[in-house]
Amino acid sequence: ATTNAAVRDNAVDGSIKIVTITNRGVGLGTANTTYTAVPISGDGSGAECTITIDGDSKVDTINISSQGSG
């Protein structure tokens, strides 16, 4: 499915190594907040990331905290 295309394209050896932000969104979460242990959906399991929301309530950074497998 095309909805998983970005996940599939960034998976290396069955785990997520990088996340590419293609749309920072608007009005997401709470401004100036970091969300930890955010699950990444896809065909595998166990992948999580940390997402930082900036002062404009847009995604600022995403860092892989657990690469998962599968």
What best-fitting shape do the alpha-carbon axes yield? elongated
Strand order of the largest sheet: 3-4-5
Radius of gyration using CA atoms only: 12 Å
Low-confidence stretches: none
Q: Give the N-terminus to C-terminus distance in angstroms.
A: 17 Å
Quick one: how many beta strands?
Answer: 5
Helix and strand content put the structural class at mainly beta
Largest sheet: 3 strands, antiparallel
Helical amount among residues, as a percent range?
under 10%
Question: Which range does the strand content fall in?
Answer: 35-45%
Mean pLDDT equals 87
Structure description:
It is a single chain. The protein has 70 residues and is mainly beta. The mean pLDDT is 87. The protein has one helix at 5-10, and strands spanning 11-12, 15-16, 33-39, 45-53, 59-69. It contains one helix and five strands. Helices cover 9% and strands 44% of the residues. The strands form two sheets. Strands 3-4-5 form a three-stranded antiparallel sheet, with no helix packed on it. Strands 1-2 form a two-stranded antiparallel sheet. The longest helix has 6 residues, at 5-10.
